[in-house]
Amino acid sequence: MAEKAVSKEDFRIYDTGRFYKQMNKNSSNTMALAPNTSSKRETVCIFGTGDFGRALGHKMIQSGYPVVFGSRSTQTSSLIPKGAEVFSHAEAAQKAAIIIIAVQRQHYNFLIPLAEILRGKVLVDVSNNLKINQYPESNAEYLAQLVPGAKVVKAFNTVSAWALQSGTLDASRQVFVCGDDMEAKQMVMAIVRALGLTPVDQGSLLAAQEIENYPLQLFPMWKFPILLSLGLTAFFFFYCLARDVIYPYVYENKDFSFFIAISIPNRICPILALILLALVYLPGVLAAIIQLYRGTKYRRFPDWLDKWMLCRKQLGLVALAFASLHVLYTLIIPIRSFVRWRISSRIVSQALNNKTEPLNTTNAWLSDSYLALGILGFFLFVLLGITSLPSVSNNVNWREFRFVQSKLGYLTLILCTAHTLVYGGNRFLSPSSYRWYLPNAYMLSLIVPCIVLVVKFVLIFPCLDKPLTRIRQGWERNPQYSEQSNYIINKSAV
Ligand code: NAP
Q1: 316 to each of 222, 226, 320, 390, 405, how far by Cα in Å?
Q2: Which of 61, 161, 306, 409 has the maximum number of C-beta atoms within 10 A of its C-beta?
Q3: Where does the record place the Ferric oxidoreductase domain (predicted)?
Q4: Residue 273 near residue 323, CB atoms below 8 Å
C-alpha cells in the first residue's frame, strides 16, 4: 500500500511472477521435469550425502540428471536416492563439471587437497549460517578463496531439504543465484529451471552475504509495523481505560469495566487503522519536502525514511486488519446487552414522561453521513489491500498500480478522516468530552492524517508541484557534477 517507492523486492516479485507465468505457458519447461528428456543432461556431482545433498540429488534424478555423490564413505546406503552412485570426493569430482557442495562451511577444509581436481569446475555453494553476518565474508566468498581455480556460484540456500523432498515448493520457488563467472551462473540457472524452480539472478558473488542472510530473517518488513501497532494499541488501551472506565468509577461510582471487552477494542481498532493508513502516506510527503529542499532526487534519503518507505505495504495491511476488526465489532453493536438496555430505558422514560422525542434531522444527517463515509472508506481500503497482493499487482501495469495505491489511497485517507471527523461532530468543543483534561481518543487519531492531508494539499499547488515533478524527472537546482566539471574546464582554460 505504498504511493511510489515499491521496494526492490516488489520488483523482483513482479518480474519473477511474469517470468514464472511465462514458464508455465512454455511446454519445454514441463518437459524439463520429465526424466526421459530427449537431450541428455550433464552429470552433476554432489559433495555430501546429508539431508540436503540427498534431497537435491533426488530432485535432480527426477528431472533427468545423472547424479554422483562425493562422500567420505563410498559405501552406498538405502538413503541414497535410487540411480545415484557414491564415490570418493576426488573420483566423483572428475565425473562432472558442476559440483554442489552440500557440506557445512566449517568442514570446507577438506576441499583444499582437491584444489587441482576442482580447477575450472563450477562449485555451487548451498550453505547457510546459524546467525546473520556470522562470518566477515560470505560462505561462497570463503569457498572461492579456498579453491581459487574454481568458479563459485551461490544458489539453492533458500530452498529447504524438506520442501525439495516433499515437493511442497510453492512458497520457495525462487532460487537466488549469484556468481562472478557469467557462464557458470547460466549453467546453474539452467539446472534451477530444469528442477521446476525460478532462478533470480542477484549479480556477482558480492551478493552472497545478503542471500545467506535471507533465510535467517523473520518477517523483516513486518517488524516495524507490528511493533508500532503493538505500542500504539497499548497506549490507546490505557488511555481509553483511564477515560472511559476509571474516570466514571472514580467520579460517578459507575462500573463500566465491561467496556474492556468490546467498547474499548472498537475504539482502538479504527484509531489504529486511521493512524497506520496515514503513516503509509506520511513518508511520501516527507520525501517530497526533502527533495524540494535539496533541489535534487540524487541524494539518498536518511536510512530511517528509506526503511519506512520499504514497509509501507505492510503498514497498510496491518491498518486494513484493524479496519476489518472495527467493522466486525460495529456489526455486533445492536446485540450488546448494554446497548439494548440503553435503548429500552430511553423508550421507557419517554413513555413515562408521555413525551416522544422529535426526530433531529441534523443528527440523522450526521449519523447517515458518518456511516456512508465509513462504508466507502472501508470499501476502498479493501481494494487497496487486494491490489497490493503480488498475484494482483503482477497483473496491472506500473501506472495502474500507482493510480490505485496513490490516488485511491489518498481518497481512502480522506474518506476515513472525514468518517472520524463526522463521528466527532460537535463534541470537539464540548468541555464534557474532556476527562482529566484528556480529549477523546479519536481526536488524537486525527492528528497524523490531518497533517498528511494538509501537507499533501499544499504540495499540489503549482508553485511546489511543478519543481517537484521536474526534480523527480531528474532536474537539479544546483547540479553538482556539471559545476565540478565547469570548474575543471575553467581552471584548465586559465
Ligand atoms: P548434514 O545433514 O549435516 O550433512 C552434511 C554432510 O556433509 C554430511 O552428511 C557429510 O556427508 C558431509 N560432512 C560432514 N562432515 C564433513 C567433513 N568433516 N568433511 C567433509 N564432509 C563432511 O547437513 P545438510 O542439512 O545436508 O546441509 C548441507 C549444506 O546445505 C549446509 O551447508 C546447509 O547450510 C545447506 N542447506 C541445508 C538445507 C536444509 O534444509 N537442510 C537447506 C538449504 C541449505 P558425507 O558423510 O557423505 O561425507
Answers
A1: 11, 11, 6, 14, 10
A2: 409
A3: 271-416
A4: yes
Residue reference for cell 542471500: 211
Set of cell numbers at residue 285: 510527503
Kindly provide the residue ranges of all beta strands, DSSP E only, lying in 131-212, ordered along the sequence. Answer: 151-154, 174-179, 198-201
Scan for cell 423508550, then name that residue.
347
Residue with cell string 540524487 = 298
Confidence of residue 237 (pLDDT cuts 50, 70, 90): very high
Mutate which of 52, 54, 74, 88 for ligand 1 pocket (most atoms within 8 A of beta carbon)? 52
Q: Ligand 1 test: best mutation among 49, 51, 106, most atoms within 8 Å of CB?
A: 51
63 Cα–ligand 1 center, Å: 22
Nearest-angstrom CA–CA distance, 4 and 8: 12
What is the 204 CA–ligand 1 centroid distance (Å)?
25
Site to substitute for ligand 1 among 56, 91, 103, most atoms within 8 A of C-beta: 103
Q: What is the mean pLDDT of the chain?
A: 86
pLDDT (tens digit per residue) in 151-198: 999 999 999 998 888 776 655 688 999 999 999 999 999 999 999 999
Instruction: Tell which atom from ligand 1 comes closest to the C-alpha of 109.
Output: 19
| pLDDT attached to residue 77 | 84
What mean pLDDT comes out for the span 236-248? 93
From CA 155, how far away is CA 178, in angstroms rounded? 7
| Average pLDDT of the residues in 322-343 | 92
Q: Report which residue type is found at 206.
A: L
- Residue 201, pLDDT above cutoff 60: yes
Q: With a 6 A CB cut-off, is 310 part of the ligand 1 pocket? A: no
Which helix or strand (DSSP H or E) is residue 85 part of? strand 85-87
CA of 105, closest atom in ligand 1: 32
Sign of CA dihedral 21, 25, 29, 31: positive
What integer pLDDT is reported at residue 40 of this predicted model? 78
**How many CA atoms within 13 Å lie on the side-chain side of 244?**
22
The model's pLDDT over 334-356, given as tens digits with 9 standing for 90+, comes to 898 898 999 999 999 999 988 88
- What SS3 class is residue 149? coil
The angle subtended at Cα 367 by Cα 361 and Cα 372, nearest 5°, is: 120
Q: Is the CB of 53 under 6 A from ligand 1?
A: yes
Q: Which of 35-39, 263-267, 355-359, 420-424 has the highest mean pLDDT?
A: 263-267
The answer to whether 381 and 360 have CB atoms below 8 angstroms apart is no
Task: Provide the β-strand partners of residue 68.
Answer: 45, 85
Question: What average pLDDT does the segment 260-282 reach?
Answer: 95
- Atom number of ligand 1 nearest to Cα 72: 48
Q: Does the CB atom of residue 248 touch ligand 1 within 6 A? A: no
Q: For ligand 1, say whether the CB of 51 is within 6 Å of any of its atoms.
A: yes
Q: Which atom of ligand 1 is nearest to the CA of 48?
A: 11
